[in-house]
Design a protein that fits this description.
Elements: H1 3-21, H2 27-40, E1 45-50, E2 53-55, E3 58-60, E4 65-70, E5 74-79, H3 86-99, E6 103-108, E7 118-122
Parallel strand pairs: 5-6
Antiparallel strand pairs: 1-4, 2-3, 4-5, 6-7
Length: about 120
Amino acid sequence: MNENELSFLVIGFAIEIHTVLGPGLLESAYKECLFYKLTKEGIYVEKEKAMPLIFEGLKLDIGYRIDLLVENKLVIETKSVDELNDIHLAQTLTYLKLGNYKLGLLMNFNVKRIRDGIKRVVNGL
């Protein structure tokens, strides 16, 4: 599957999860549910994937972690906040750039309708 197909699948699972659980839980609950649904479908997912920073040839492990990396192609950043802001977008873009990934989904589950909490983030590479 390509990034767009994976994102369509992930958004479908997010809608399903949000319909059952609703808003108001910790982001870790939604992340674990997405991880479960994807792995149940046989999709390869890495949870809390470490993302090192390379500076002048030096690899720095400074704590950056992608919430979910799907099929080594799609970055998923889960949130449960009152509203998404620029720092959340910047965080997702940073992961895309550091890992040279094309597409990410920034997903805020603390909304009435999950579709209102999803942003597609594209790395211009």
